[in-house]
Specification:
This protein is an all-alpha fold. It has one domain. Helix content is 33%, strand content 0%. The longest helix has 17 residues, at 21-37. The two termini are 20 Å apart.
């Protein structure tokens, strides 16, 4: 995951200036809604299954197993922030990929030094 670091940075209040809280919240929320609405996310025994949008075992790596899927829960780290925190109260903003596909101007994301 790409989303766990974002969630952790949001929780710790350490998002880079180029990423606004409303942008990160909106992106994380949209991804979670899509992922959890896909269907077939839980197997017969109630465990999360491998995949981005439903059961997609063909995209997994050889070392991945059902226990690995609980890394998914790390995206919920911002729930540790109080309800009145700016992460929750700031305006929802488009994230970089959405801006790009909408033809909007956007700062390029890059690794932090």
């Amino acid at each position: 995951g790409a989303f766990q670091p974002l969630a952790l940075l949001a929780l710790k209040g350490e998002l880079p200036e180029s990423l606004r809280e409303g942008q990160v919240r909106n992106a994380l929320t949209s991804v979670m809604k899509r992922m959890f609405s896909a269907g077939e996310i839980f197997g017969e025994k109630g465990f999360l299954q491998l995949g981005f949008a439903g059961h997609q075992p063909g995209i997994s790596d050889g070392y991945t197993n059902n226990g690995s899927m609980y890394l998914t829960s790390l995206v919920f780290l911002p729930l540790g922030l109080p309800a009145d925190h700016s992460f929750w109260t700031s305006e929802a903003l488009n994230w970089t990929a959405k801006k790009a596909w909408n033809g909007e101007e956007f700062p390029k994301d890059h690794a932090e030094e």
